[in-house]
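User: Second chain of the day. Same drill as before.
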Amino acid sequence: MANQIKMSVDSREIARLTKKLLLLEPKLQKKYIKGATTKAMRPVTTEAKRQARKSKRSGFLAKSITQVTRSYSKGVTMTIAGAASKKDPRTGENPANISHLIEFPVKPHRIVASKGKTLTNVKDVALGFQNVIMEFGKEIEHPGFAGRPFLTPAFDSKSKEAERIYARELEKAVVAEGLKP
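Assistant: Same format as last time:
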């Protein structure tokens, strides 16, 4: 299972507003909830970008952080924040492929070149090599990596603000539809 960061909302105010919102037709519910979750996650995404700029890499990780909101037929709406899958034009790296390695620690491990494959363009300051080409069966001991979280601190510091924005947006929706809050 992949590493995940989850933020859940447990607020009486939001529960009360959600009950009112559920009186509306499903299409409107989906519209208002999707809008509220999108706006509520913006401070978290902005903070994640700020935290990612602390990383000593190219800076493209911070530029690639974005959010996507999806509504599903079962009534679930999610906003996902993370690195978009696009390559850095300067280095050729895709931040989506390495963001979990920056966020979470990596244990020391062996890298072994498998049959028919070579490892190329390896950039590892800890080992002091670059553009290594490994032949089949060769291996390298990777020392591991402590991790420099950028999403976790963003969620921790902005979750209360996200809850307030979510409640405010739901209240706007309920008032716009003429239901008493």
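The radius of gyration is 21 Å.

User: Great, on to the next one.
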